[in-house]
Amino acid sequence: MGSKLRPGRSYRNWDMPYTRKSKYKSKNYVKMAQTPKITQYHSGNVSKVFERKILVVSQNTLQLRDNALEAARIVANKHLTDTIGDQNFHLVVVAYPHNILKEHKLATGAGADRFSSGMQQSFGKPIGLAARIRAGDRIFEIHMQDEHLDHAKIAASKIRKKLGIKTKSVIV
């Protein structure tokens, strides 16, 4: 990637998505969709049934970029693996980034009027993906036994700090 990412707050608003993907190429609004940056949606021991779980729940309706979700997943997975081992928890990324973010880059500077098209064909080029999250939606789940609840609470707080949005942890 040659260009620098804009801050997540630039894409946080819940706008109308113009991301039609059709099986007919001519009816597609977006010609190219990127793959999500999230490498795995389930970490830890996926086959074991655990007693407790902590949910990280959004308190606002917004969009959340896929690289923020991946950063939160990495920090929680590292903390849980280092403290309680990889067989004693199951971390789930519930939010799926499906909304395509677009940006219309305008040329600036001297001589920009010679090659800039202005607002003609201003649909924009795909630059990333975001998960559309409503207030009360689950973003992450951490499943564990009762004796590992304190470490899972720390992991949930690390997730919340990485996301940078208003969230709460719910113990079930």
Topology of this structure?
Layout: E1 42-44, E2 52-58, E3 62-65, H1 66-84, E4 89-93, E5 99-103, E6 125-133, E7 138-144, H2 149-163, E8 167-171
Antiparallel strand pairs: 1-4, 2-7, 2-8, 3-6, 4-7, 5-6
CATH architecture group name of the domain at 42-97 and 130-172: Alpha-Beta Complex
CA(first)-CA(last) distance: 41 Å
Question: pLDDT average, as an integer?
Answer: 87
* CATH class descriptor name of the domain at 42-97 and 130-172: Alpha Beta
- The total strand number stands at 8
**In DSSP terms, counting alpha (H) and pi (I) runs of 4 or more, how many helices?**
2
Structural class: alpha+beta
Can you tell me the CATH superfamily of the domain at 42-97 and 130-172? Ribosomal protein L16/L10
The CATH topology of the domain at 42-97 and 130-172 is given as: Aldehyde Oxidoreductase, domain 3
Largest sheet, described in full?
Answer: 5 strands, antiparallel
Listing every helix as H and every strand as E from the N terminus to the C terminus, the arrangement reads: EEEHEEEEHE
Query: How big is the Rg?
Result: 19 Å
What would you call the shape?
A: elongated
Helix fraction bin: 10-25%
Which strands sit side by side, in order, in the main sheet?
1-4-7-2-8
Uncertain regions spanning at least 5 consecutive residues: none
The amount of beta strand, in percent, is 25-35%
